[in-house]
Structure formats: C-alpha cells, structure tokens
Amino acid sequence: MRPTDLTTPTHFHKVVDCQWACPAHTPVPEYIRLIAAGRYTDAYMINWHSNVFPGILGRTCDRPCEPACRRGRVEEEPVAICRLKRVAADNKEEVLSRMPPVPALKNGKRIACVGAGPASLTVARDLALLGYEVHVYDAEARGGGFMWTQIPRFRLPESVIEEEVGYITGRGGVVTHYNHRVQSLKALLDEGFDAVFVGCGAPRGRELDVPGRQEAAANIHIGIEWLAKVSFGHVERVGKRVIVLGGGNTAMDCCRSARRLGGEDVKVIVRSGFEEMKASPWEKEDAMREGIPILNYLVPKRVLHENGRLTGMVFEKVKAEYDAKGRRNLVPTGEPDVTYDCDDVLVAIGQENAFPWIERDIGLEFDRWGLPKLDPVTLQSTLPNVFFGGDAAFGPKNIIWAVAHGHEAAVSIDLHCRGEDVRDRPDPHVRMASQKMGIHEWSYDNDVSIDLRYKVPHVEERLALRDIRVEVELGYDRELAYKEAQRCLNCDVQTVFNAKLCIECDGCVDICPTDCITFTENGEEDDLRTRLKAPAINRSQDLYVADGLKTGRVMVKDEDVCLHCGLCAERCPTGAWDMQKFYLETAKTYANGARACRS
Amino acid sequence: MSYLKPTLHHPKLPTNALGLTRRDYEGSISTLCAGCGHDSISAAIVQAVWELSIPPHRVAKLSGIGCSSKTPDYFLGASHGFNSVHGRMPSVLTGANLANRELIYLGVSGDGDSASIGLGQFAHLMRRGVNMTYIVENNGVYGLTKGQFSATSDKGSKAKKGAVNTDEPIDLVALALELGATYVARSFSGDKDQLVPLIKGALTHQGVAFIDCISPCVAFNNHEGSTKSYDYVREHNEAVNRLDVFFDRTPITASYAPGEVTEVTQHDGSLLRMRKLHEDHDPTDRVAALNYLARHKAMGEIVTGLLYIDPHPEDLHDHLGTVATPLNRLDDAALCPGSAALEKINAALR
Ligand SMILES: Cc1cc2nc3c(=O)[nH]c(=O)nc-3n(C[C@H](O)[C@H](O)[C@H](O)COP(=O)(O)OP(=O)(O)OC[C@H]3O[C@@H](n4cnc5c(N)ncnc54)[C@H](O)[C@@H]3O)c2cc1C
Ligand SMILES: Cc1ncc(C[n+]2csc(CCOP(=O)(O)OP(=O)(O)O)c2C)c(N)n1
Ligand code: SF4
Ligand code: SF4
Ligand code: SF4
Ligand SMILES: [Mg+2]
Predict the structure, then answer these.
(1) Among residues B40, B77, B74, B71, which one has the least CA distance to residue B59?
(2) How far is A489 from chain B, CA to nearest CA, in Å?
(3) Quick check: B8 and A75 CB within 8 A?
(4) 3-class secondary-structure state, position A377
(5) Which of A295, A518, B152, B241 would give a disulfide with B274, using CB separation of 3.0 to 4.6 Å?
(6) What is the ipTM for the molecules in this complex?
(7) All domains of chain A, ordered by start, with CATH?
(8) B40:A75 CB<8 A
C-alpha cells in the first residue's frame, strides 16, 4: 500500500467519525470536552458557528453522527452526541456578545431567500455577517420553517426556536418579510437581487388513494397539514380512536400529538416491516412508550364510512418476499383482511416537492422528478444567480442537511457576487497541535471511561400527555452530562507517527488495548488487512500506513477501534508517536478561510 | 501517565479453549522505561500462555531482582507470583517445585540476576533439571542500577558513556547446554514470531527449559557500539530454525519443503516442528549444538532458535523419587510418619 497522504486533512478528518458524518462537520469532540470542563458557552459557540441551531438540533437532530460514532464499535452504544449539544444550549451564559458583529457598513449586495426554514436562515446568517443585505420571505407568520410548523412543541419548545432564529433575524443585516408568499420567481428576480436562494422546503404531503377517501374527507387529514394546524392552535382536539398511516418521523409526531389531543386508542399502521420503517429508532421507542402500538405489514385497502362520517379502515395483510435480485416485494398473505374502527385518520406517507411559483420558461431547469437541476457541491441552478438548499434541493432530508446546504450556498453566493468561480471552493480551516505536556502527560483527559450510555431523563408520562406544550425530555443535568461527555474517546486527538524516530521496539504494539498497530512487510491492502495483529475487517475505516523504517517494514495502524488513549505514545521511547489534536472547521463566508479575509 | 489499561478491547478479540481472551492474561501496566525489550517479552509470555489455554492460576511465576525481575507484575495478573532476592530465584523456585509439582513454573530473571550474582544458583538448577521454564531477559547491563556491564556483556562492547568492556562474556546458552538443560533456546525480544512458539515449547517441556532472550535496554544499552542494541541484534541475528508447536498431528503443509523439517514429540503429547534454516544444525544433538554455537559465535553471529531439545527429559522429582502429590494435599500422617519411620531411614543410612 502507498503510505498515507497526510498533506490533506482527509485521513485525520475521517478518523473523527462523528465530525465526518455530520453534514455540517461540527467539531464534536471539541465541544464535548468543553462541556466536560463546564465551559458550556464555549461549547455552544462552536456549535453555533457550525450548525447554527444548537438548542434546536440538541433536541431534534437526526444525528447521523451517532451511528458513525467510534464508541458504538467498542461497546454497546455511541456517545449521546446530540443530547450533549442540548446541554451546551441549556447551560450557556450570554452569547450575543460572542457572536461576530454584523457589519454596519454594507457591501451593497442584496440577496433574497425564499422560505425562512433552517436552510434560508443559515444563508442569511452567513451572508449578513459579511455585510450583505438579506431579505427573507416566508408565507408563515414567523421564522423557522418546518422547525416551527411541523416539529411538535413537546419535542421542541417555542422559546428555543424564537431565541435561535432571533440570533439571525434580530441582529441587523436581515430583513424579514413574513406572511408573504412569493408567487413568482421571475418577479422576485426582477426586483434586482444579486442572487436568490430557494429554501422553500418540500411542502406537499403525499395523498392516500383508496376507495372511500373522498367520502370520509372530513376526518382524514394529511399529516403535515394537520401538524401545522396543531402548531398554530387551529386544531386542538382529535377523535378518541386514531389511525396514523406511515412509518416515518412525521407519523411518529402525528401519533404522539394525537395522544395529547384526546386520542386514547392511537395506533400506527405501516405497510412494510417494523425494522424497515423510516422513523429513527428513538422516535419509535418514544411513541411505543406512550402506549402507541405499531402494526406492520398492513396495506390500506378501503375507508369505511357511514353517512359521510368515517367509521374505520380495512387493511390487507402482506408479507415480505425477496426476488432473485434481493429486491423486496410485499405480497398478500391470503389471510382475511383486517378492519380497525376509528374516528380520525392521519396520513403521513411521505412528502413531495412543489414549486408552483417558479416559472418554467425563465431558464431554470427541473429534472424528471420535478427537482431543480443543481450542481451538487455549489447548489447553483441552471440560472447562475439562483441557488437551492434544504428540502427544496434534493427532496426531504432534515435540519442539519438544510444547515449544511445553507453554508455551502452562502459560500457560492458570495463567490458569485464577487464574480469568482463558484467551483473554486475555499479550503477548510485545519489545525494540528501536539497535546504533550510532559513525559507522560497530555492536555486532554486520556483515561477511557467504561460507563455505558446514560439515559436522558423524561418528564413524568402523566404530565407529558396532558399538555402538548410540555417538553418530554428534561435533558441531562450537569452531572449526567459530565459522565456522558467522559464516554467520548477524543477521536480528534490523533495518533501521528514519525517513522524516522521509530526504533521498532514493539512497545506501542504491546500496549495498545485494541490491537490497532502492526509492523509488517508491506503488501496490497486486501492482503495487508488480513495480516494485522487484529484483522481489519471494517473496510469503511482506513488503514494508516507509514514507511521509512530501518527494517524496511511498514507501520500499519487500523484506525477502526483506536481508543485515542495515548498509550502508544506513552510507551514509545522516542516520541515516534505523538498525540495531536486535529481541529477542522469548514469554511464559512464570514470566518476563517473566507475570501473576505484571504484577499 | 496512565496507570490502567482500558478494559475496552477489540470487538473481534478471539478466545481460547477456556473462553478467555489474551487480555485476561495481562498484568498491571508496566512501569519499565518505554521501549524496554522486557515489555515485549512480557507480551510474548501473555500470548504464549493464552495460546496454550493454560488457566492462569496453574502458573507460578518467580523472579529475582532487576528490571527483568519486576516484569512478572506485568503479565499473568491472575497467577501465583514470588519476587525473591537478587540471584535467588532458582533456589526459591526449586523449593516451590519440590513442594508442589502440579504448577507450571516460570522463572524470569536478568543477565545480572542469573549470570552475575546468581550464577551459582543458575548452574545448580540446570544440573538438577528442575521442571520449569527459565527466561533470562538479557540486556548486557544491570538496568535497574543504571547500566553497569553485566557478565553477559560482550568483550569490546561500549557503555553509554564510552567505557569499553574488557571481560570475557558468559554465554548462558552454552552453559545451560553444558550443565544438562533439556530444552535450550535463544531469541530476541524484537521477534515475537520466533519468541512466542519458543516459550510455548518451553512451557510444555517436562524438564528444565532455558531461553536466553536478548532484550535491549533502551535507557542504558541501545547505543552505537553496544552489542545488545536493537540495531546490532537485528543485523547479527542468525535464526537456525523456526518452531511451531502443535497438539495434534497436523499434516505438514506445503509451506515446508521436504527434508527441511525436524519433528519432536514431547512427553505431554505436544509436537514441536522445526523448520530448518541452517543445514548443518541438528537440534537433537547436544554436542553438535555446542559446536555449532561456538563456530557461529566466532563468526560474529548471534544464533537464535531452538538450539537443543531432549524429548525425553528427566527432572528433579524423577531423580529424587519424590511423591507425586503436592505437599499441601498430604495429611499429617503422610507428612510426619513418626519415629519408627525415621528410625528405619536412619538405619538404612548406617
Ligand atoms: C413532522 C415533521 C417532523 C420533522 N422532524 C424533524 C426532526 O426532528 N429533526 C430534523 O432534523 N428534521 C425534521 N423534519 C424535517 C425538517 O423539518 C426539514 O428537513 C427542514 O425543516 C427543511 O428545512 P428547509 O430550510 O429546507 O425548509 P423548511 O423548514 O421546510 O422551510 C420552508 C419554508 O418555506 C416557506 N415557503 C415555501 N414556499 C414559499 C413561498 N413560495 N414563499 C414564501 N415562503 C415559502 C414555508 O412556509 C416554510 O416555512 C421533520 C419534518 C416533518 C414534516
Ligand atoms: C544482593 C543485592 N546486590 C545488589 C543489588 C543491586 N541490584 C539491583 S538490580 C541489580 C542488577 C540487575 O541486573 P539484571 O538482572 O540484568 O536486570 P535488568 O535490570 O538489567 O533487567 C543489582 C546489582 C541488590 N538488589 N541486591
Ligand atoms: S467517541 Fe467522541 S470523538 Fe469519537 S466518534 Fe464518538 S463522539 Fe466523536
Ligand atoms: S513504541 Fe515507538 S519506537 Fe517503539 S515501535 Fe512503537 S513507535 Fe516505534
Ligand atoms: S533501565 Fe533498561 S532494562 Fe530497565 S526498564 Fe529501562 S530500558 Fe528496561
Ligand atoms: Mg540486565
């Protein structure tokens, strides 16, 4: 194998699994250490720069970081990265003074953002901090997009949204136009904006098409429309017996909301198997804990109604069968259909994009799925001054993806407004610093905690179900947060090897608790992976290979289950291993790496 | 500084016949200098005992004084241990073995401990054929007392500050062969592929098994001009054979060319298979081994591998005709048979 290329940050960035998996590349271990140190405000600010909505995301993030977390590969569960983020938000002190100031002197450029969801708000923040004048339009009365209209208050209190949206819209540079639905992109462009960002989300709920749907329409609701009405207070009650159709997170929010609005017998019914459901495991758990059964392999067949009133639904029983290509088909089992009586049905079977306000003759092209044609990196559309992000770009995703898109789109818009090539992206900001403090002393806590994941305390269920505004999760207190934070393995503190110093004594090989290090003859990767002290079977994790040893062998480190305990470096007589903190921040328009500071 | 090794381990860490992982055979974290060869030998012992699926409590580890003699704390944390007096491990171990022959005895010593102050004890243990594994972690210096030349230091070898050793070295391997050891090997801490099987073979050997393991002292004897440094040993290492230890009649695989393999079945059924690397070396001939050693030493080579093996050793208990039951399991009547029995013995000696 070729020696690992350390001239680019890729190898070490991938070692920080959580940060690599986070769409916005939040420097997770750094903020977790700050939480352990009680420096909540500092931890909050790291998050704020990276993901803009730490308090919101600390409660609602889809957390792609957690399945990626290294901890989950050396014991049962990953670090509770997401809920630690909330700890920073809950315990922080004043933060406004720490935020970069919005320049009083404007750069003369005007940008329009359609929608006030997380994608648009991120664009607005990043550009306003650079002196742009950003106009944000939303059909609703407040900012936040789906975070406000869809995510129920028992998961995300209004005050948190208000606070974090306020850090963007309330500091100047951003002009909000609420209760203002943009009806024409052409007209908007005609207003002379230097660029337009489209962050209008994926606002249309998929319809249910079965006999009886129209006749019983009064009691059949499209999930996202219903949730929005609940959020606005337009819907305050629901029938006693409720069926929720669908297996995604929207279905979970519908059923749990229904439980709080008078629903006593609420059930979720999905076509596919329980395991295949799109909802996150923790959302399913939360629903089931609230007494909501999830019934699977049932396909809606008919709506039953009497005198225009919904009475129940009929389902066909199916089972999964796999064809020769391994594709799954749902085929009827042949058993009799099942009927469930109900008073209301909530349809949460998917969301679609819709751009009725974008003219099709202005040069902005759509693909055959109705999505805009975009450059996946720059998010630029076929109209060079129109950019997309969030759910509007590639279909429904989640908040953290919307934020990540927002940062990238802001960089693109800034480059575009400067007349530069939007594909020439600024580099991330990277720092490497040795953590050595003494012979065997490190400036990070290298002891490895063996504690299992701590559960986040919940409010008493009786209280939770009484009022839809009561937040279910109480969050970790400081003590629990400290203990959970100690579970983090500090994957950003990298093991950096210097072959010139190595005397091949095997000290590091012998001490490594997880058998990561091998000195051996070089070979092709496939072969090398089988010859290591512990076979490196996890191909998603790279090998760190270094040559230049006296014996002509190579040092091979399987990064997979390294605990970052620093024992290799402690047992190395020559300092050939050093523990160096790798800090990476993606380029933001307003901060390090931005063209503004570089030129 | 870390005082504890995390208990988290590789998720695919294999278990042996007892269901234990290698990590279950470790001891406390080493306090030796980072990079000390002795730590590698500890790791090799852990590996060997784990591979043999020996229950840790069946092992007694004994040592003298020195960095090397400290190491039993760093392996087999669940075994019996006795850290004795400088150079006196052999007599303490002999006593222990006489009292309870059912344990597996592992003596760990240094070149100072065995070739300087303890030379007399070393010699007599070899002569008596105590059933044990005797490992000398040989670094050519008194590491613990800051690097004075020991008796195994080669003539002409330079100390860290430049002093040259003028005395002839003692070759413990030659001495062990001379004195009747029935399993004699030399190895290098930096070559676990060679060392681990040698330790396994020694542990299964039912007589006195001696391993001289060169083990660089990074603090005092790993410089230019030393003949016990990592670089010097790597350059001059001549392995005579590669050993594999089997417990079944695994057929000889294609990786061995015909005629190149010497097989020895030991008393406990273990099969030692040695792949010859040197034509003119026969590991079952004591005199030839001594000659071979002398010839190659004169050529400046450090000969390593299993140099001699007697598959049918006799041990101290065989010589003395002692009772097989450990003393702690004999009752009072058997241990103290009374004055009539004593009278009988005395009469026999008159
Ligand atoms: C029920 C439900 C629960 C969810 N829970 C989570 C969760 O827990 N965690 C998570 O990460 N994600 C969750 N999501 C997904 C998440 O809300 C979205 O992915 C995210 O909000 C997308 O952000 P966005 O900026 O693209 O647009 P959105 O948040 O969808 O905002 C778009 C905004 O644009 C406005 N708009 C649309 N068209 C126009 C127009 N023509 N003129 C003016 N304004 C317009 C809309 O009113 C809306 O406010 C959930 C989604 C749903 C439906
Ligand atoms: C009776 C006695 N004499 C001297 C000493 C001092 N002493 C301690 S260790 C040692 C030498 C150890 O050398 P070696 O056995 O080679 O061990 P190493 O430290 O090199 O591994 C000496 C002389 C002692 N502890 N006891
Ligand atoms: S252990 Fe910590 S640094 Fe490592 S992946 Fe998990 S959260 Fe990130
Ligand atoms: S401990 Fe240091 S000198 Fe020894 S093998 Fe490892 S890296 Fe090389
Ligand atoms: S002094 Fe030498 S023998 Fe002792 S621990 Fe240090 S390196 Fe090892
Ligand atoms: Mg010594």
Answers:
(1) B77
(2) 11
(3) yes
(4) coil
(5) B241
(6) 0.91
(7) 100-202+353-417 (3.50.50.60), 205-349 (3.50.50.60)
(8) no
